[in-house]
Amino acid sequence: MKRRKFLQNASLTGIGVAVGASVLAKNTAKDISSEIVSEATNSPTTFPIVIATWDVPNATNKAGQVLDEGKSALDAIEQGCMAEEADASNQSVGLGGLPDRDGNVTLDACIMNKDGNYGSVVYIQNIVHAISIARKVMEETPHVILAGKGAEKFAVSQGFKRVNLLTEASKKRWEKWKVTSEYKPIINIENHDTIGMLAIDKNGDISGGCTTSGLAFKMAGRVGDSPIIGSGLFIDNKIGGATATGLGEEVLKTVGSFLIVELMRQGRTPQEACEEAILRIVTSNPNFKNFQVGYIALNKKGETGYYSIHERFSTSIYKDGKNENFKSDFYNKT
Ligand code: ASP
Questions:
Q1: CATH 3.60.20.30 correct for 3-330
Q2: Which residue in 60, 96, 225, 290 could disulfide with 248, CB within 3.0 to 4.6 Å?
Q3: Edge-first strand listing for the sheet containing 304-308
Q4: Does 48 sit behind a cis peptide bond, omega within 30 degrees of 0 on the bond before it?
C-alpha cells in the first residue's frame, strides 16, 4: 500500500529517481566551496537533514521534528527509530516483527554518535525499543554490545518493561510459513521496513541508528548486519555516515557501511560510495539476483546518496521541514 502510494507520487511529480554515477561524478565532494546541491532534489542544502531506508514517514518526520526543536542528531535518531519500533503494523522492526523459525521475535539494533561512540544489542527479546537499549549500552556501560538474555536483563534494570512482541498478525504469518517451512532467507525485494537512519543536526553533527527484527523466519540465534559496527551502520562525524538494509550476510562480508564512509573520505560523493559498495557485493557473489541490499549515505556537507542491487528500494529524506520518499537507482537492470 505504502509503496503503491509512493510510486504514484513519484510518477506524478517526475522526481524521485536517484541520479546515476556518471552524472554525479560532476557533482563531487571535491566541489566543497560551491553551493551544496543534493542529488535528490537539486536544492541548496540546509541543516538539519534526516535520511532513512525505505518509506518510513512517521520515523523521519519524528526525527525531523526533534532536530527542528534544536535537539541533537542522537536524540533524533533514537526517537525516529522508536516511532517505527512501536508500530505493530511494521513487521520487520520492534513490536510485531516477524519471528524466527521457532516463533521468537528477536531484535538487533545499534546507534552511533558524533564522537564515534557506539552501542548495540543483538538477539534481544521482549523489549520494544531496542534502539534505546543500544543507546543505554553506549552511555551506561563500559561495553559496546550486549546480547540475548543479558541485554534483556540490562534493559529491565534500566526500567524498560518486558512485552510480548509477537502480535496476532505476525503469529499468523509464522503459522502460514510453518506449513511449508521452506528455509530460504531471501530478503524481500519489494518493501521492507528495517530502519537505518542518519541525521545531521543544526550544529552539523552526525549520528546514526539501525533497528530490525532481522530476516523473517531466520534460524534461531541468527544475527544480521544491522547491529554490527561498520556493517549495518558507520558514522565518522568528520566525514559522514552510512547504513544498510537487505540481506545482512552480504553486508557483513563486505563491511559495507564502513566501506562507504572510507570512500567518502577519499573524495567520493555519497552516491558514488553507495554504488561502489553495491558493486563489491555483486562482483563477489554471482547469486546477487536472488537477494536485495540497499545503502544510504550522508556526508558532512549534507549531500545524500542511495543505491541498491534491485529495483524498489527507496529512501525517506526529511529536509527543509518536510519529508519525501525517493525511489532509488539500482544495479540489476536486466
Ligand atoms: N539487514 C537486516 C538483516 O539482515 C534485514 C533488513 O534490512 O531487511 O537482519
A1: yes
A2: 225
A3: 233-236, 240-246, 293-299, 304-308, 329-330
A4: yes
Domain-wise residue ranges, the chain? 3-330
Sign of the torsion formed by the C-alpha atoms of 184, 188, 194 and 197: positive
Give the Å distance between the CA of 214 and the centre of ligand 1. 5
Q: Which atom of ligand 1 is nearest to the CA of 249?
A: 4
The atom number, within ligand 1, closest to the CA of 53 reads 7
**pLDDT digits 0-9 by tens, 117-146:** 999 999 999 999 999 999 999 999 999 999
pLDDT at 96: 86
- The reported pLDDT for the residue numbered 40 is 47
Ligand 1 centroid vs 53 CA: distance in angstroms?
11
User: Strand, coil or helix: what is 2?
Assistant: helix
Catalytic residue IDs: 194
Q: φ, ψ for residue 207 (rounded to 5)? A: -135, 170
